[in-house]
Amino acid sequence: MAGHSQFKNIMHRKGAQDAKRAKMFAKIAREIIVSAKSGLPDPNSNPRLRAAIGAARAANMPRDNIERAMKKALGGDDTTNFEEVRYEGYGPGGTAVIVEALTDNRNRTASEVRAAFSKHGGNLGETGSVAFMFDHIGLVRFPKAVGSFDEVFEKAVEAGADNMEEIDDTFEVTTSLDGFAAVRDALGDAYGDQAEAKLIWRPMNTVDCNEEIAQKIFKLVDLLEDNDDVQNVYANFEISDEIMARLG
Q: What pTM was computed for the model?
């Protein structure tokens, strides 16, 4: 009986992982569609599309899924128009949260995001209510296999990057908002679709959270990220290693 229960638990976790992967692929596909529609359909001439395809490959998204998204964007039979929308608010413990979405129905998405904040002890605010607590910067990320730290760092600096760090198995290059396009294009030309490039919101300061607040924040972020329209969630919370170990 214990073996059967363990098998069921493993299958449940695998099912949850598969569902999460499918949702992630759907969000990347949406970004590919929007990118392809917003510029030239050739990734070599459309840096945003190249970055979207890079993100797809970094996530091990099947080639068929990528090609299907491209065909949907260029086939002419898809009349869905996605808008880029940003939501801002306060989460549990006074944490600041920014939510970026691609939606074909602003009212639906706003209602769902507001409900998520309310359910987990937060409040959705007006645009600009927390953005001032973050730096809006560019991020270009590569697998370390593209080359040595010194080589990539030199190319990044020549292109106008602000900083580069080695984090786990990746190089992460950060840029100013104004310098992002030049750095993205230069490093994309050097390393092709292995690059993942996007604008992010980096908190200027962080809020230390106890275990109770941390649990609430994780639930809020999980619920927001589970929304089909939500592409990215940024927040300024800080959780100690000790609390993270207890939360598993």
A: 0.83
